[in-house]
Amino acid sequence: MSIYAKTFRIGFALLVLILAPGDASAATPSATAVLSDSQPTVGQIVQLEIKVNGANSANVPETISIDGLEIHQTGTSRQFEMHNFDVSSSVTYNYTILPLKAGHFKIPPQSVRIGSESLRTPELVLNVAQESGSSGSSGSSGSSAGSAQSGQNPVASKLAFAELVVAKKDAYVGEMIPAEIRLGFDPRAHGRLEEGPELSGQGFTTQKLQQPRENLETIGGRTYQIYTFKTAIAPARPGKFEIGPVTAKAVVVLPRRPSTSSRTRPRSPFDLFNLDDPFSDPFFSDPFGSIGERTELPIRSEPATLNVKPLPSNAPANFSGAIGNFTMTVEAKPKTVQVGDPIAVTSTINGRGNFDRMNGPALEDERGWHKYPPASKFKQDDDVGISGEKTFEMVIAPNEKKTAVPPLVFAYFDPVKENYVTLRSDAVPIQVEGGAAPAPAVAAASTTSATPTATVGVTPAPTAKPQDILYQMSDLGRVRSFTPVYQRPVFWMAQLAPLILLLGFVGWKIRQAKIGNRDAQRAAALQQESTELLRKLRRSELSPQEYFSNASRVVRVKTALAKNINPNAVDAETAAKAFDLGESECAQLRTLFERSDELRFSGSGNGARSVSSDEREEILRFLESLRA
């Protein structure tokens, strides 16, 4: 029965996943937001959920900036439901809120974008009270398992322990502090971790616990199986407070308590100092002769004290919160470009610190440059991500002739030196060609007269011809001839002029026909390109960069067909005028071109989200509606 039930559930889940992309978009999208607790105390973590119904994905803010609250996005979850074969989908975006001070806070409505549609979440209210003076760690049972809680099995109290090790006792707000959680079990009890470990406390955040390292250690003359979990702690506010305790729940195998008749048992070689070793029970000398008890064993450590200092107030203008010790390298390619061409500037930050809250280096002088949003990737060198290198790829384009990429600056706080440090790279030499072309110098052609220049106000006298009979006789041969007309060069010159005109007219007509044919061929090629691009956009395997590049190309091709212009010269404003679009359509068109440029220049493989089916359908409907 259970096998069939599992098979049915798997098949049902697959059916939901198959049907979800097509049917989920039928519902009208909506967005809401809820808090796990509206009245926390200072330092108490509150969960914020933004739930979007009727969509598989949406654009939501990664961080929400409110003075007195530290809000960060922590993850995403998706749900699918089927009712009478109608599939509905929803996506939940999770945030953590850390109150830094008491007061009445309002979380304003947040913008949620689904395709071309924009939604708003309701306003939320958070009333933060001042934390009570009592310490939450009262009643701690100690770090070793030898000091048991009241009512705990005294035998079990010697079988396990928990320990919290923090690398330093003094730190700054936002500094990443390495920490270890150590859980020890007597190997003879076959301890198994059921829950935890969990690190309690307020006023700090922790990195996700990694898989534990396992080894054997001898402590106080006894051997323990040690499980070491590594993490990092980042305090969120100044002051002196406790981290921990660490709590966990394990299951161990214990011998049954001996009966009255068998209380006089031989001492175990492990019980040399009359410590009432639980393994002196006959169960462990003859494991097949008795049955052991599985017993739940709560484990609790001592808390650690941390003194947190605020960062100095003299932070540089470009300080974004990086704390640690770092170095920076910068390179730019290509070195020779035209005005407006992109240049990829890659900056790499190496070192140790809070890479998760680090922003990229900034241009020292941004005048004359167009800058695109940077992309980043991180390669860690340790288990918890506080050591490694973070690479930022930023695309810039010169708006005028430049000889070098300006230096990049990066500021961080060094907790060892206890001061701010600003790293500054060298300027990268480049060559930018092009720009505004100078007006061509047109030399005025000097006209030379064949005749001498006349004196102003004096009319040159005509050359007098001789008037005698000799002039008439000698001039007769130059104006008269008895040669036939068709043999005279003048005749053929006169016939050649209409012939040249006729040939020119015929050539012009042929050229016009060819031009018309080329226009028809060009229009047919553009129409075929538009059809092919739309066919590609209907496929789901395109990457976001390819999808938005093809979509913007469709707009350019359709505009070129409508206005008989070069598609490469089409921008969002030209296309909007060509199709006489309304305000909402213009906004959608500008968003399409901006997304295409961002994915092209900012690195499509870093941080680029996928294109949802809802967004694809919306873009396709918009492209197919473009008609002149």
Secondary-structure topology with pairs:
Blueprint: H1 2-23, E1 30-35, E2 46-53, E3 63-66, E4 69-83, E5 86-99, E6 103-107, E7 111-114, E8 117-120, E9 124-128, E10 160-166, E11 170-172, E12 177-185, E13 192-199, E14 204-206, E15 213-219, E16 222-235, E17 239-243, E18 246-254, H2 282-285, E19 293-300, E20 304-309, E21 319-333, E22 336-338, E23 343-353, E24 362-363, E25 369-371, E26 375-380, E27 387-398, E28 404-405, E29 408-414, E30 419-424, E31 428-429, E32 431-433, H3 469-479, H4 489-537, H5 544-563, H6 572-579, H7 583-601, H8 613-624
Helix pairs in contact: 4-5, 5-6, 5-7, 6-7
Task: Write up this protein.
The chain is an alpha+beta fold. Strands 21, 23, 24, 25, 26, 27, 29 and 30 form an eight-stranded mixed sheet that branches. The chain has a five-stranded antiparallel sheet with strand order 1-2-5-4-3. Helix 5 crosses helix 6. It is elongated, with a radius of gyration of 42 Å. The two termini are 63 Å apart. 24% of the residues are buried.
Question: What's the quick description here?
Answer:
With 628 residues, the chain is of the alpha+beta class.
Descriptors:
628 residues; alpha+beta; 8-stranded mixed beta sheet; 8 helices; 32 strands; 23% helix; elongated
Structural class: alpha+beta
Count of alpha and pi helical runs: 8
Approximate shape:
elongated
Regions with little confidence, pLDDT below 50 for 5+ residues = 20-26, 133-157, 260-265, 267-276, 281-290, 436-459, 464-479
Strand element count: 32
**What is the residue-mean pLDDT, rounded to a whole number?**
76
User: What is the makeup of the main sheet?
Assistant: 8 strands, mixed
What oligomeric state best describes the polypeptide chains here?
Answer: single chain
Helical residue percent band: 10-25%
CA gyration radius, whole angstroms: 42 Å
Distance between the termini: 63 Å
How big a fraction of the residues is strand? Answer: 25-35%
